[in-house]
Amino acid sequence: REMQRKYRTLMFIWGCSWIFLLVYTVIKFPQTNITILIFTSSYWIMPLLSLTFTIIALHSRDGYKKILRCVNYYVFALYILLILQKVAFETAGIVFLPFYSRLITSTNVYREFGVRLGMRGIENFMVIYNIFLILNKDKLKVQKLNYINFGLGLYCVIVIQQTRAYIISFIITVSIILLQNALQKKRFIKSLILLCLGAAILISTNLLSDIIGSLFSTTESYGADQMVRVDAINYFIQYFLKNPIGGFGFADGNTYAS
């Protein structure tokens, strides 16, 4: 009961802060697109959702597995929507997902695999979760959806999202999982084969070398993007110091951060 009371109090405080920042953003940044405002503000409740999942997992038998199973169905739908959106935009210029309505006028939306569509943390995390289950299927229960979502998720990470940090993080994480499995006698040969196979794919496709090379690129697609991020750090720090209560709120960066 004590935990429930504290949780309800935290939810109330977090909800009030979310509403305050919404109102603050609308008043201080009136040109902010409502769709982008809602999408951006959703990140504010992510920690609360994480806490909710943790409580359910601690107080329910196999609670976290049930949650992640539901999340897997959720991200499956998102992966399909992202793939369809990419195809629709590149073939007919159609944008049916409102969060990507600025694709046509945005800069730096094209890279090696065409138009880029960003994903949130949960879609990226589930790629790691599913590959972890698959690599440990002798100990953990694996469903067909785990294989399907791993394939779809990996495609979205590399071809649709095209974010270097996530790709590098994925490579490092999978390597750590395989190295950990390689320490076990029963999995040593299998893990070693998978590591060599993965290394061969990265080398033969030049994927890793292209990613590393892009980090030092001065082209418009990469170089300008990196310089903007470096300048943005100082910009947002100074803005926060001038507005410590609400900061930048959930304002549309494309409209106001210029």
Describe the model.
With 258 residues, the protein is an all-alpha fold. The chain is built from eleven helices and two strands; from the N terminus they run H-H-H-H-E-E-H-H-H-H-H-H-H. The mean pLDDT is 75.
Largest sheet: 2 strands, antiparallel
Number of helices: 11
What is the averaged pLDDT score?
A: 75
The radius of gyration is 21 Å
Relative strand content: under 5%
Strand order of the largest sheet: 1-2
Q: Would you list the SSEs in sequence order as H and E?
A: HHHHEEHHHHHHH
Helicity, as a percent range: over 70%
**Spans where pLDDT lies below 50 across 5 or more residues:** none
Shape: globular
Describe the structure in brief:
Helices cover 70% and strands 2% of the residues. The protein starts with a helix and ends with a helix.
Task: List the topology elements.
Elements: H1 2-28, H2 34-41, H3 46-58, H4 63-92, E1 110-111, E2 114-115, H5 121-135, H6 144-161, H7 164-182, H8 188-205, H9 207-215, H10 223-242, H11 253-256
Antiparallel strand pairs: 1-2
Helix pairs in contact: 3-4, 4-6, 5-6, 5-7, 7-8
